[in-house]
Every structure is written in structure tokens, then in C-alpha cells.
Amino acid sequence: MRLTADLLFQAPTYVNAIKDRELLLRSHRIPLIENLGITKDLNDVIDLSDNDIRIIGNFPKMTRLKGLLLSQNRISNIQANISELLPNLESLILTANSLSQLADLDPLAGFSKLEHLSLVDNPVTARDHYRSYIIWRIPSLRVLDFEKIKDSERKFAAQLFGTVSAPTELASQIMKTKTATSKVDLGRGASASIVKLTDEDKAKLRESLKNATSLAEIDRIEKALRTGVL
Q1: What domains can be seen in the chain, in order of their start residue?
Q2: Region 16-28: what's the mean pLDDT?
């Protein structure tokens, strides 16, 4: 099921136990984050758990949002500028997804207020130096995988990886190893590869948009231009 305007208008909102306004979008088999501008940034937390989302991205700028629940999806990719779109995010729950490379998590380094992160039951947690790397890349973190980060862990991570401006050889090697492509499930058995758009691709899409003859085609082209992937 797509994350349509109708679904967003019908989705329940409530004040949770810590007095945050939460939008509930669990268990709809949503394949792609879209249309969240309709919510007018009125929520502190959005729960998108138990869907079919493959990419964390395509958000409008949401300055109020501080909690994002994305457990039990199929996430394997994170939009590079996600921290610019959600600048005040404090908690990100990604339990039971498909993130596999440490460098695939580098976009999270831009979150200056992120304190709580869960990556439990992702393949990436089996990588060498996983916990140390995440602690090093996201200095604001206080709790990783529901375990409080110790000062000794921060010191060890700094010894292992250096600084962002002067990373060690190990850090540099890890940052170069990213997932090249990911398969996106489009629902109902269809799938497609994520292809990052070049400037030439975008120009061609803009030209195609002028000649589009259906709402579906217009929506597809506008979405590609907005997300930067095809």
C-alpha cells in the first residue's frame, strides 16, 4: 500500500507516554516514504514500523520530528542528506532491517542531536569494529542498541579511527566500502534496482515531464527528480 494522502489523513495520532505527539503508520506494507509534507510537521514521532520500506529518504524538511521508528522494514540504504531534512532527530530505531555495510550508515553522522540508535538484527552488526565505528561516527550518541555508551568505548573508538579530519587507515578503508546498488521491492512481486540520477538524467526527466500524459507518469517522474534515484 502506498503512503497516500488518504492514508495519512486516516492514520491515528496520539500523545504517547512521554507526552510526544505520535503518528501511527505501522503495518501497511508501505514500500516508500512519500507525501509526508501533508502532515505539516505537526508530529514529534512517526511510527513506520513493520512496512516494506527500503530507503530512509524522501522526507520533506521536518524540524519538529525527534523520533523515527522503522523497525521490521527492509531498509538497506539511507539518503545522503537525511540529517538536513530531519535536523532535530534524537531517536532512530532501525531494528530488524537489511543494512549491511558500516559506510552505509555514514549519513547518520550528520545528526548532531541523535542520542538513541538501534541497529539490532541488521547484518551490519556482524561487521568487525561495528560498535566502535558507530560510536566514532556519531559522537552525540548516548545509547546504541539499547546499551549505554561508556567513556572507555569512546576512547577506544578514537584510538582505532582517529578523527574525522584525520582518520586512520582503517577508518578510511571502511568509509570506502558502501553498498553499490540495492534492490527495491515495489510491491506485488515487482522489483527494480536503485539508479542514482546524473545531471544529464535529470535534464531528460524534466523534458519527459513536459510531455507526460498521465498522472501516474507525472508522479513517477516528479518522485525520481525529488529523490535523485530511479
Answers
A1: 5-176 (3.80.10.10), 183-227 (no CATH)
A2: 96
